[in-house]
Amino acid sequence: MSNKDIKGSIRIADDVIIEIVRTAALEAEGITAIAAASAKSARKRSNGLRSGIAVRVDGKNAVIDLAVNVQYGCRIQDAASDAQLKIKSAVEEMTGLNADNVNIYVRGIQMPKNQVPEDTDKQE
Predict the structure, then answer these.
(1) Antiparallel, parallel or unpaired: β 98-110 and 31-34
(2) Which structural domains are found in the chain, ordered by start?
(3) Is the C-alpha dihedral spanning 47, 37, 85, 27 positive or negative?
(4) Residue 80 near residue 43, CB atoms below 8 Å
């Protein structure tokens, strides 16, 4: 029996795609967290980015919007590009969808816990 002999459809829930996106993004070097979008931008876009990830599927194409925090000291462009590649690859391999639009919004920088800000008063 081949696939063309089977009738019906397969629909992947947006929540499944969102979890794939979340996992792949956090594997990218320099990405420390998924960041919720600001209330203002979430209202403006009204596409679910308030949770930090929005997915829109149209046929076999997926558009992904993702808000992230990056590690202080990393090259932001490299971290975001790595996340785009990992997300695209994971979504396409696991779902069969085309993920040609992966939009990354860098919302914040995470400082290392043991790093002291440079502008503090130093005693000499």
Answers:
(1) unpaired
(2) 11-110 (3.30.70.1350)
(3) negative
(4) no
The one-letter amino acid code at 107 reads R
DSSP-derived letter for residue 78 is H
- Give the span between the Cα atoms of 49 and 46, in whole angstroms: 7
Determine the Cα–Cα distance for residues 77 and 6; give it in Å rounded to an integer: 45
**In the predicted structure, residue 81 carries a pLDDT above the cut 60:** yes
Phi, then psi, of 34 in degrees rounded to 5: -85, 130
* Residue 17 · residue 91 · CB < 8 Å: yes
pLDDT digits (tens, 9 = 90+) for 19-67: 999 999 999 999 999 998 665 555 554 455 558 999 999 999 999 999 9
Residue 29 DSSP label? T
Region of residue 46 (left: phi > 0; alpha: psi -120 to 50; beta: else) = left
Using alpha carbons, list the distances in angstroms from residue 84 to 1, 16, 61, 90, 110: 37, 18, 15, 10, 19
Q: C-alpha angle with apex 33: 31 to 36, nearest 5 degrees?
A: 125
